[in-house]
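sry for the spam today, last one i promise. struct tokens for design, 166 residues
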């Protein structure tokens, strides 16, 4: 009976080691995929929650709220919750629903292996700057700063683009 317990414990320990190495391998593959997407400048941020300056978190029920980045352009389809200091007369569309080809894209590596992507939009319209903080596993926070509106943050994930790159 003692031999059976000893063998069972050995098998259980072996199973835990194999499962742990498989999880670590999957994690490193996911990290490499995220690095490749960010370096290619061809990815999509899918927003899951919004955090305006005033109020709490707002769960976004639609999977369509996203910002798609391409090498030469970006397309934003995000809602806005907050105070506008100045807006266009009669505008009913969110200021975060726009397309732009005039922007700068800068990537920095953070302390814990993640990346910070700063996008400065050069057109005079809102928003002014997008800052995307990406963890190695792909979870991300997008901070949107504007001259005419309160800042807002979005939490979500990074995925590959569905649309083919130009």
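last one done:
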């Amino acid at each position: 009976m003692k031999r059976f317990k000893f063998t069972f414990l050995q098998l259980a320990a072996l199973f835990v080691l194999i499962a742990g190495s498989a999880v670590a391998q999957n994690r490193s593959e996911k990290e490499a995929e995220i690095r490749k997407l960010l370096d290619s400048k061809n990815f999509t941020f899918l927003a899951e929650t919004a955090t305006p300056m005033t109020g709490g978190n707002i769960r976004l029920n639609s999977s369509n709220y996203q910002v798609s980045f391409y090498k030469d352009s970006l397309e934003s389809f995000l809602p806005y919750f907050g105070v506008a200091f100045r807006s266009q007369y009669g505008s009913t569309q969110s200021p975060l629903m726009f397309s732009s080809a005039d922007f700068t894209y800068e990537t920095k590596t953070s302390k814990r292996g993640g990346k910070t992507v700063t996008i400065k939009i050069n057109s005079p319209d809102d928003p002014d700057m997008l800052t995307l903080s990406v963890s190695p596993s792909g979870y991300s926070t997008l901070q949107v700063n504007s001259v005419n509106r309160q800042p807002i943050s979005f939490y979500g994930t990074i995925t590959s683009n569905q649309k083919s790159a130009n």
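The longest helix spans residues 2-40. ok im logging off now
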